[in-house]
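Hi V.,

You were right to ask for the full record rather than a summary. Here it is.
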Amino acid sequence: MKVRGKLWLAGALFCAIALQAQEAQKWQIGPFTRPQSGNPVIAPRPESVFVDPILKKPVHWETLHTFNPAAIVRDGKVYVLYRAEDDSGAMEIGGHTSRLGLAESKDGVTFTPRADPVFFPADDAQQSREWPGGVEDPRIVEAASQAHEPHRIAFYLFDLASEFHALYTLGNNAPHLRFIIQNDRELTLARLVLVQGVVTVLASGLRLLGVEAPSEMR
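Predicted structure:
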């Protein structure tokens, strides 16, 4: 009976592992092939100059580093949001101002970045939270996991939703700050890419907490 019990347990474990591997294959995307040319698709550009609304002077906003991209597909094009650092401050981590750039591509390999950042610190109510460090990519999930403090994710999602709501409502009194700008398709598309990024982060964070994201709010 003991031997049979062990064989039954081994068989059950084998079936469970095989089933798990089979289920894993259902959601995997790929395989991927790295193209021979076009790498990296996003790189620092010292020639990019942007008039900073806080400093009131031109800055080389993506001359030092470009990294942490997020891509989506819209209207047959690939749009990539990426974080860029200028050459201000001390030459150390956290010593520069970060802004978000946007690049687009028809083939997913050759990208054309925009001359100016699409999301950046400005002289507004959020300046105390954004300056001088700028716009950062979230690392809250890693911190919450290492510290065994999942509530950090909930706090982060609440702060993100609050900040986005505050940004959205600015358009009530300032039409140029609205996400949908008539007669300016490119600006509208850039802002909708930002909206999609916020939606993705909120949905992913809620999924980590075991909460299903609603399709709409009433």
